[in-house]
Amino acid sequence: MTAWWHYNITMPRTKTPADRQATTLHIDRDVLKALRLKAAVTGVTISTQANRALRRSLAEEDRRLKVFSQRRGQPMRPYEDFLAELKKDGKI
What we know:
Layout: E1 4-9, E2 23-28, H1 29-42, H2 46-71, H3 79-88
Antiparallel strand pairs: 1-2
């Protein structure tokens, strides 16, 4: 069973108050425990950790979307053909 905890996340203190927005996230108990431990060890707040992780995730999604966009219009390849080629080449 997943336990949910409420935790307010704001932008890092280096931002002006106008750049920050308080919100509530529902974080799994084990994730929150890890964030608290990391904050205690590194001195990096949970808010900063969350912002960094979210920014990395958004950047990765942006990279994926750019690749999909670049491949638009290319012929599709059936999965079975790709799998057969991997087997033939001894990769799987």
